[in-house]
Specification:
globular; 6 helices; about 425 residues
């Protein structure tokens, strides 16, 4: 193969490449005698053989190369198709706005956890130097505030400076072994966070895990709790699942019968039923509305109205769901027309003492033996636009059948459930 580029040496002034036909035709007139002709035939034969071998070698080299290139191109095409399909599948559940916007991010600071979409904080969990952990802001899709700003931030026009302990969205109770964890002040207890872990688990989901000590005004710990909060933004709506496991870590517990509790939210003033800028409405799963909602029982409660400062045509809302496995489901509701909504399974006498069928004193009292636990679960559905009862029932069915959060196994039977009685059904 070293002869591949061999050139037949010239004779005289007639240098040229010798073809096989010329090699077979000695022509002394052209400067080639028989000896040269024999040499040419030998050289041409070598060249012919060498080129033939080269072509065979090239074929042997080219075939695997072509095959490899075909396989490589096919793999790249299939990979691109698979990536496009996965991207399409991931994008399918999202709205156009979500596809063009930034994904969720989670940031843990010294005093709070922030859940962001792009540069906007859509939910923040405050836990340092506060009477109890709370969420603020709580934004509906579109960036509208669902909860009151004061006393966390300066009040805006239309906000009333009442009930300073009602901070946006929180969990607490007004009577645990006689200690008040609902209000604020020297005689009130505090819920102090002891650990927290927050992270984004998927493109549209964030998870917060925390634990807290419930400290009485005396400084003694009464109980501790463990919390799991899952925030999801999908299909133009936002949901927040809240699970709290209360542990009788320091002896027997008694949750007293009081209206002051328990899973609560304080609405922005424009969503109130009554008030200076109120233009909102309440609807319960039982069909009761507005002023008739307080002190009654329901599986869910819906508040809907315009955002503060927006036109009446713009609507936002929040639905609170009481999980079917909760204590005494469906819950009683501390639902005030001034903007407080709270699911409370303990205030039975407090809610019914003025009704036609009052319950005995301490009817809602609940005792929890030392080292035992009580778990309560709730879901908040945050939405923009009008939401009808049939749509809420669809969401309610989905919540009832949803698997439990990681680390929160559901009991097989609802704890001390109590169906609606005849009078409640009639109302």
């Amino acid at each position: 193969r070293e002869h591949v580029n061999v050139r037949v040496p010239p004779v005289g002034d007639s240098a040229r490449f010798i073809s096989p036909s010329d090699a077979r035709k000695p022509n002394p007139s052209n400067g080639y005698d028989a000896r040269h002709a024999a040499h040419c035939r030998e050289t041409t034969h070598c060249l012919s053989l060498t080129r033939r071998d080269q072509r065979r070698s090239e074929v042997r080299v080219i075939l695997p190369t072509v095959f490899f290139r075909v396989v490589l191109v096919a793999a790249l095409v299939l990979g691109a198709c698979g990536a496009n399909q996965r991207e399409a599948e991931q994008d399918a559940p999202r709205t156009a706005a979500e596809r063009t916007g930034s994904e969720l991010s989670v940031r843990t600071l010294d005093d709070r956890v922030e859940i962001r979409r792009g540069d906007q904080v859509v939910l923040a969990y405050h836990f340092k130097d506060v009477s109890r952990p709370f969420f603020h802001p709580v934004l509906a899709p579109g960036g509208y505030e669902l909860t009151r700003r004061w006393p966390i931030l300066p009040a805006v026009a239309g906000e009333e400076k009442d009930h300073p302990h009602q901070r946006s969205l929180w969990f607490a109770h007004g009577d645990v072994n006689g200690h008040d964890f609902w209000t604020e002040g020297k005689e009130a207890g505090r819920i102090v966070q002891t650990s927290i872990d927050a992270k984004r688990t998927t493109r549209d989901t964030a998870l917060i895990r925390s634990s807290d000590d419930w400290i009485a005004a005396s400084g003694d710990r009464v109980l501790r709790d463990e919390r799991v909060v899952r925030f999801v933004e999908r299909d133009g709506r936002r949901t927040m699942d809240f699970v709290v496991r209360m542990i009788a870590s320091d002896g027997d517990l008694v949750f007293g019968d009081t209206k002051e509790g328990t899973m609560a939210i304080r609405l922005t003033p424009s969503m109130r039923v009554e008030g200076e800028v109120a233009n909102g409405h309440l609807l319960m799963s039982t069909g009761l509305r507005d002023t008739k909602a307080w002190g009654t029982r329901a599986a869910w409660l819906h508040a809907q109205g315009p955002p503060l400062g927006a036109s009446d045509e713009t609507l936002i809302g929040v639905v609170m769901f009481d999980h079917p496995q909760n204590l005494r489901h469906p819950s009683w509701w501390h639902a005030r027309t001034y903007g407080l909504l709270a699911a409370n399974p303990f205030g039975i006498h407090a809610f019914t003492k003025q009704s036609k069928a009052p319950r005995p004193k301490d009817a809602g009292r609940f005792a929890l033996a030392a080292d035992k636990t009580l778990t309560l679960r709730y879901r908040f559905l945050l939405h923009q636009g009008s939401l009808e009862a049939k749509d809420i029932e669809h969401e309610w069915a989905a919540y009832k059948s949803a698997p439990p959060l990681d680390g929160d196994p559901l009991d097989g039977v609802p704890l001390d459930s109590e169906p609606l009685d005849g009078e409640e059904k009639k109302r």
